[in-house]
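Entry 14. Structure prediction run on the chain below.
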Amino acid sequence: MIQVKKLEKSYNNVNHLHILQNLNLTVEEGEFLGIMGASGSGKSTFLRILGGLETFLDGEAAVCGENLQTMKEPEKEVYRQKVVSYIFQDYNLLSGLTVKENIILPSTMGNVEEKKLEQDYAAITQKLGIDAYENRFPDEISGGEQQRAAIARAVLKHSRVLLADEPTGSLDMHTARNVLELFEEINRDYHVTVVMVTHDVFSASFCNRIIFLKDGKFTNEIEKSGFQQDFYKIIQKEMREMDGIF
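Output returned:
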């Protein structure tokens, strides 16, 4: 599903700053993977590479058989439309469209039956509590409400891969749980592969596997083998032992 080999990313400034160094990763189809690390560790950059939003210096990265290194921009546009859905930290909603129009727009570009689209939209927005403000514009709602709309937009596409960058960062605990349960549902019922960047232990505990990133390098990983509350404690313990990663 996702194959990354010896991936390198740097900025060609005076110091030739390395952002990602020699990353190797395999993500199986239907996996729910979490990536954790401190601010500036390279988490969001790595996710943007998987989303076809950033280039990289060296190595290989392929998603669903699509080679991200050799893709031209028109091919990346098709890839972003048909293969992956992306949840941005800054929501990335269009100011001239209502919340509902923002959510539905990407899905209308595919070959989706209108009735099915409306049914899925109703189910997702009800779970996330969006129906109360669906006819408002982005600048008329709060940051948390915009985040819910961005999440609904990504989930509605039913892409093979869902990439989520700190999706619960601006949400209250109740809404965050609803979002994470929705991720679990589409991961389980539709076999959608989910890769989520997060610094939050509660959010991470919903994943099946966690990989830690420090100074642009993967340091270690842990897998869920029991109940969520047990995995929560294991993640906490791992973070303490890593001393200073967060």
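Residues 173-189 form the longest helix (17 residues).
Filed with the rest of this week's runs.
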